[in-house]
Amino acid sequence: MKKNKRILITGGAGFIGSHVVRLFVKKYPEYEIFNLDDLTYAGNLENIHDVSSAKNYHFIKENIVNEKSVLELFKTHKFDSIIHLAAESHVDRSISDPMAFVQTNVIGTLNLLNAAKSLWKDNLEDKLFYHISTDEVYGSLGESGFFLETTAYDPQSPYSASKASSDHFVRAYANTYKMPTVISNCSNNYGPNQFPEKLIPLCINNILNSRPLPVYGKGENVRDWLYVIDHAKAIDNIFHHGKNGETYNVGGLNEWKNIDLVQALCDIVDAKLDNPKDHSKKLITFVKDRAGHDERYAIDASKLMSEINWKPSVTFEIGLSKTVDWYLSNQSWMQNITSGEYKNYYNKQYQTT
Ligand code: NAD
Ligand code: DAU
Fold it and tell me: What is the pLDDT of residue 203?
């Protein structure tokens, strides 16, 4: 029988977190879901407006860097599980401001670990600290090979170094204090509600505004893309069936060179808008490469698929089509978040006026 869990989900107003919150609130009415988010530029309550009045949903605005408040929240709400997604998540921003990534991704994770350790003490039955991480901790692959759970960590950007550090702390707490933990490391997500600093929503938004589509370097870097709702389902399965102390890689079995992906996206948008053939491809512009740009990521997800019974349910063709449909029908969502801070970020990153 399912227990009435009290689950803290951090970062639930962000891209992936909002899909995880929605899935848990709707699928498990017997659980109490506490969404803790500081609503940074990437956090947006509009992402989860449809569940905001559910009886089993509670929102807490707090910064995980705030040690005392995090401890107080654990005392007040007596969480018995954590699914930790809150993070600074964008590689380009980590290159211009690494310290923000150390604060949230490392110190913030430690504050959550310490609060859980202090409240759970020796009563660890049915407790779980589930840490959501990234395939970027493994570094960069050449033309062949895949990331396995046993691949040595080799982070190459300030973002991935901060995520690797947080993963190490989670494992250290499991080993030293016997904290029940699970970690999953996922490849690139795409889908509704992704902030338009990331490649796919940035290109969709730029196509709709007839702006250049900035492709870094020669566009030959490879990423392994997974539909966000399939990631949320993997998180659900791992939360309920993952083994204590284990790591699971999550991936889309779906590698694309950036330039091929951007061209495919142009074709999809053009078809949906009845644009002439190759209309949007004319916007593709090769720009200065990202510093230290990882060449290729590719996940071997066979452990998750065989032990936890998960596989991607959506093909890339369908997932991209659904994603474009969502952005076309939610243009006010995009307009609300691309005013203000986004404009400053965009002009600085892409040096436009
Ligand atoms: P996101 O940037 O869209 O959302 C992050 C959320 O965390 C936002 O709602 C933000 O307000 C919140 N947040 C940031 N700093 C905070 C702080 N100090 N205190 C409280 N809340 C804070 O990120 P995302 O893409 O949804 O990624 C979620 C998690 O998944 C991250 O841990 C990321 O490393 C990991 N991940 C992301 C991807 C991907 O492709 N996006 C892939 C693998 C793993
Ligand atoms: O692999 C998982 C990671 O995927 C997550 O941990 C990160 O949180 C998430 O942001 C994502 O990182 P990437 O750096 O791979 O994603 P991004 O969308 O920023 O870039 C995807 C690829 O596209 C990458 O090779 C860089 C390139 N790119 C990106 C942008 C924003 C461009 O060519 N032009 C762009 O303007």
Answer: 98
- Which residue carries 């913030």 as its tokens? 108
- Residue 139 to residue 227: CA distance in whole angstroms: 22
Q: Which positions ≥6 away from 239 have C-beta within 8 Å?
A: 81, 83, 128, 130, 182
CA of 88 to the centre of ligand 1 (A): 6
Of 85, 88, 250, which is best to mutate to test ligand 1, by the most ligand atoms within 8 angstroms of its C-beta? 85
What ligand has the least distance to the C-alpha of 147? 2
- pLDDT at residue 298, as a whole number: 98
| Domains contained in the chain, CATH given | 6-193+228-255+295-316 (3.40.50.720)
**Whole-number pLDDT of residue 351:** 82
Task: Verify whether ligand 2 is closer than 6 Å to residue 91 (CB atom).
Answer: yes
Amino acid symbol at 74? F
DSSP bridge partners of 285: 214
CA dist 249 to 39, 133, 134, 187, 231, Å? 28, 9, 9, 8, 11
Rounded to whole angstroms, the Cα distance separating 182 from 167 reads 10
Ligand 1 atom with the smallest distance to the CA of 104 is 18
Cα angle at 216 between 196 and 339, to 5 degrees? 25
Q: What does the pLDDT read at residue 2?
A: 58
Q: Which residues are catalytic?
A: 135-136, 159
Q: Which atom of ligand 2 is least distant from the CA of 290?
A: 26
Low-confidence residues of the chain: pLDDT under 50: 1, 353
- Quote the pTM value: 0.98
Per-residue pLDDT, 1: 47
- pLDDT on residue 3: 72
Q: Calculate how far, in angstroms, residue 288's C-alpha sits from the geometric centre of ligand 2.
A: 14
Q: Closest residue (by CA) to atom 23 of ligand 2?
A: 199
CB-based contacts of 43: which residues, under 8 Å, 6+ apart? 11, 13, 14, 37
Using a 6 Å cutoff on CB, does residue 214 contact ligand 2? yes
